[in-house]
Amino acid sequence: MQIPTHPDIAQTELPELSSSALTLLHTAEQLIAEKGVDGVSSREIARRAGQKNHSAVNYNFGSFEGLVEALINYRVGPVNRRREQQLSRLLAESELPSLEALVALMVRPLAEELLSDTGARYLGLLVQLTQRPPWRDLFMRNRARSSAIRRTSTLAEQHLLQWPEHIRQERLRLQGFHTVQVVAEWDTQIRGGELDATIEALGWRIDDFIHYSVAGLQAPAGREQ
């Protein structure tokens, strides 16, 4: 397989953000990576960003939660756009792409972030959000707004009609969280020097995880259904 490298296109695709708002986002991203999402305050972000007004976060984003949501949108936007483009190509070839192709669509665009300069911080933020109940709703709201994720999940569910609806939806929900955790684990290994951030090192791991995921989605259901 081939994973294309890509530029940090988020800045050029979010012209509505002012330079001060972008500075706050970049500063918040760095501080959250250092201290965790629960260990950073709006005041600290403003101070580190060189803002004299300590209410700069509230002024630009409404609240600290609004800043985190803007940060998710800032980083996840390009990922979702790549998913949209790839899904359009799949649907041009078939009304119902294979389950493997759909799972790959969930996994590959996120895994590509491992080869970008900004991927590590973004992936670390996603893991924090999915592991902390107060922030999980924020993450899920953003995920629900992604038409590519919704459409891909709906199509994938068509391959799982042998199971009751609640099992299908639970498996797809867990697949989403599992994908974030696995890609973040690869990121941890890269930063620890255990794994090279190259197509050669990541390619077979991504392929294997996709096959592993397809098998898990199609595995026999438990006794209690």
Topology, number of strands:
0
Query: Could you name the ranges where pLDDT drops below 50 across 5 or more consecutive residues?
Result: 1-15
Number of contiguous helices = 10
Secondary structure category: mainly alpha
Helix content: 55-70%
How many independent structural domains?
Answer: 2
Q: Report the portion of residues in β strands.
A: under 5%
Radius of gyration: 19 Å
Largest sheet: none
Mean pLDDT: 84
Shape: globular
The termini sit apart by 37 Å
State the order of secondary-structure elements, H for helix, E for strand: HHHHHHHHHH
Per-chain topology:
Layout: H1 19-35, H2 42-48, H3 56-61, H4 64-93, H5 99-111, H6 119-131, H7 133-145, H8 147-157, H9 165-191, H10 199-217
Helix pairs in contact: 1-4, 1-6, 4-5, 4-8, 5-8, 5-9, 5-10, 6-7, 6-9, 9-10
Explain what you see.
This protein is mainly α and 225 residues long. 69% of the residues lie in helices and 0% in strands. The protein contains 10 helices and no strands. The termini are far apart. The N terminus is likely disordered.
